[in-house]
Structure formats: structure tokens, C-alpha cells
Design brief:
about 210 residues, TetR/AcrR family transcriptional regulator, Arc Repressor Mutant, subunit A, Tetracycline Repressor, domain 2, single chain, mainly alpha
Length: about 210
């Protein structure tokens, strides 16, 4: 009688830790929040994430907590910083700043899409107003701008010897200009090319017509 080999037991994949699972669920939820706003169901989110609906509630106490996590993820600057740091310093300053403006404007667009979708369905709570420090600064807002500003400053540094101000001050001004010119709902916003040209060459054309 021929002996049969026992069927090898299947090894289960290692369980995903709570932080990674939370990040995966939020990543799947973000485009659905943009599409459906607060009316998106956890069933749709679970299907997009390839998990059971109950898995969502192992890491989020309720749908409201998941929506708040989506807003928090949308405003985080991490991806923006990574893209800014990846811009090649070998290209001309104009091209560097054009890429940087595209990155920042893309971040603002994604952030605005998530916030607008939730606000339109009446499920976005207004954030508590930040408290200024002893110098009147808003630390929470400053913390969110600091890392992108440092990445922008690095884009100016190769040309520091021909710049009128320090790389840090120029990065601060450029960041604020891009954010202001690209705000959602702005009438006839500057194109990225116009914005960069205006920043580098000013508002007054030279008599010869050269920029």
C-alpha cells in the first residue's frame, strides 16, 4: 500500500499592524471621499481596500473617525516634500521652480477636493482655531509649512551667488505666493508659468521687452 504524503499546511501571511492597516484603509478611502463626500459607505471603502467591512472598525471606532483621518492625510505635506526633494538640481532655476509649483498646486488641489467633498455634505467640522505662541505665530500651521519650505530652499541654493535674498527667504515668499495664487475658487488664477516668471522677473517688463 502506497503511503501518501501529508498535505503541507498553508502558512498564513503575517498580520498587518494597526498603523499600516489604518494607512491602507485611508489610502483606499480618499478617492471615494472625493467622489461621494461623507455619503460614502464603509462597504464601498472596504471593497476598494480589498478587506471585510468589519476590518475597518478594528482600527477606526466609527465612520466619523475614518473621515477625520482622511482629512488629516489630505493635509499632510509628506508626499509633497518627497516630490520637492526629488526635483533635479541640474536643471535651470526656472524649471526647478516650475516643477515645485506644480507639486505644491497639486497638493492644494487634492487637499481642497477632500475638504470640499466633506463640507458639501455637511460632515466637515470646522477645526478649532489654533492658539498663537508668545510671538503671535501659529505653531500648527507653521509646522505644516516648515518641511516643504526647507525643500524649496534647497532648490534655490545652487543659484545663491546670483540671488538678491537668501534661499530660505525666497523659499518662504515663493511658497506663500504659490499657495495664494492657487487657492480654490480664485478668479482667473495665474498659470504656473506666469507665476514663476512673475516671481523671478517682477511685474514690470524691461524697456527692451526682455524678461
Amino acid at each position: 500500500m502506497t503511503e501518501t504524503s501529508p498535505t503541507p499546511s498553508r502558512r498564513r501571511a503575517p498580520a498587518m499592524d494597526a498603523d499600516r492597516r489604518r494607512a491602507m484603509i485611508v489610502a483606499a478611502a480618499l478617492p471615494l471621499v472625493v467622489e461621494y463626500g461623507a455619503s460614502v459607505t464603509t462597504a464601498k471603502i472596504a471593497k476598494a481596500a480589498g478587506i471585510g467591512e468589519g476590518t475597518i472598525f478594528r482600527v477606526f471606532p466609527d465612520k466619523e473617525a475614518l473621515l477625520k483621518a482622511c482629512v488629516a492625510e489630505a493635509v499632510r505635506p509628506d508626499d509633497t516634500v518627497r516630490h520637492l526633494e526629488a526635483i533635479s538640481l541640474d536643471q535651470p532655476l526656472t524649471d526647478r521652480l516650475t516643477e515645485a509649483a506644480e507639486v505644491i498646486r497639486g497638493h492644494l488641489t487634492r487637499m481642497g477636493a477632500v475638504i470640499s467633498a466633506l463640507a458639501a455634505t455637511g460632515r466637515l467640522e470646522p477645526p478649532a482655531p489654533p492658539k498663537p505662541d508668545e510671538k503671535g505665530r501659529l505653531p500648527d500651521r507653521e509646522a505644516g509649512l516648515a518641511a516643504p519650505r526647507a525643500a524649496l530652499a534647497a532648490l534655490f541654493e545652487p543659484d545663491q551667488d546670483r540671488l538678491r535674498l537668501s534661499a530660505e527667504r525666497l523659499a518662504d515668499a515663493f511658497q506663500l505666493m504659490v499657495m495664494s495664487a492657487g487657492r480654490p475658487g480664485a478668479p482667473d488664477p495665474l498659470t504656473i508659468e506666469e507665476l514663476v516668471d512673475l516671481f523671478l522677473h517682477g511685474a514690470i517688463a524691461s524697456p527692451e521687452g526682455n524678461r
